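Listing 4. Sequential folding, example run.
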Amino acid sequence: MSQQRYHLYVDRMTCTNCAGIISKALTGLAGIISLKAVPEERLIDVLLDTDRTSLDEIRQCIEKQGYEVRRIETA
């Protein structure tokens, strides 16, 4: 298992409800080890198993919920 942590900055994620929508969608993906949403910073901190899912799949999942990933940083 290969693990990588990322910080994803998400436009329009401004409240706990938004964070909950995104978190629920992401927990359905295989390979998500842990995640934490911080709406005050518009941040999703995610630890993933890169053998089971990709950063691109995570971005697509967030965008399907109506949000846009503005920036991604390796944590």
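-- end of first protein; second protein begins --
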Amino acid sequence: MSISEQEILQLAREYGAHFGLKLSTIGTYAVNDGKFFGRLEQRGSCTVRTSRIVLSWFSENWPDADLVWPAGIARPALSGSGAPKKKDAA
């Protein structure tokens, strides 16, 4: 499953807006790199491996109860119990 840099940014922006988090914080949570999303905003790119890691992180941590997954972005299957893990974003 592939995802574009713009789709990754869309997920990050929606997730961040929902929880009141900066992109740098989400980057630290998702890939242990606070500058990750800033680089993508500056027309940077990432490897396929990293995009899969980020997409999986969003899928596992998405707050399904109160935020709809963006239309047009394919979501990978959830692992484990079948329910997303809820990260304490506070």
